[in-house]
Amino acid sequence: MQAYWEKRFESEEKIWGDKPSNSVYKAISLFNQNHLNRILVPGAGYGRNTKELSKHFHVDGIEISSHAIRLAQEFDSTTTFIHDSVLDLKLDEQYEGIYCYNLLHLFMQEERHLIVDNCKKALKDNGIAFFTVFSDKDHNNKQGLEVEPGTYEYKQDKIAHFFTEQDLRDHFVHFKIVDCGELKEQLSYHNQSHTFIELRYIVVRANNSIYIE
């Protein structure tokens, strides 16, 4: 995983251009309504989404690629970027909110649940998390070798899990689910090409009293 993203950021740099995902604005509205201040962004990349978030909140971004972090520090000087893996978070504090864009689906089932657990631990009680993931309605679903139920090697050396709504909800059983829906988004690449992707999003609230381990 780390080698794949290191190589890709080195060769393509700002892979998806400068503009943030439309889901960022949905998250900003949600976080503002709930008067949040400190936000964690797992899988921050080169700062495409953190730059918009950091206009409103204090933002820390977690990123596994050292090259992406170098790009991010130039692109978004306001966010604090931390070189770490979402599978092994060692954070000194908890956050009021988490924005996690298109990261969870890049992992196998055991790792996905570990990421969700790590995010749970990183959230203050009653904190809010906003996740987006690939939908089972996306055109890449069922492309390539199926390595686990619903998970495909849809590109060379790259897997993705394609979530049904129930599957997504099942990943967050230890949270209070606030909202769950669908998004269609255009991805614009650095080479001026673009594609449309089908996403699902989920908004959850941490309630440590129902956390079971």
UniProtKB/TrEMBL annotation:
Cited CDD domains: AdoMet_MTases
Could you tell me which residue ranges the Methyltransferase domain spans? 40-127
Membrane-crossing residue ranges in chain numbering: none
Q: Which UniProt keywords apply?
A: Methyltransferase, Transferase
Query: Which GO molecular-function terms appear in the entry?
Result: methyltransferase activity
Give the GO terms filed under biological process for this record.
Answer: methylation
Q: Which InterPro entries match?
A: Methyltransf_25, SAM-dependent_MTases_sf
Q: What is this protein called?
A: Class I SAM-dependent methyltransferase
Q: Which organism is it from?
A: Paenibacillus agri
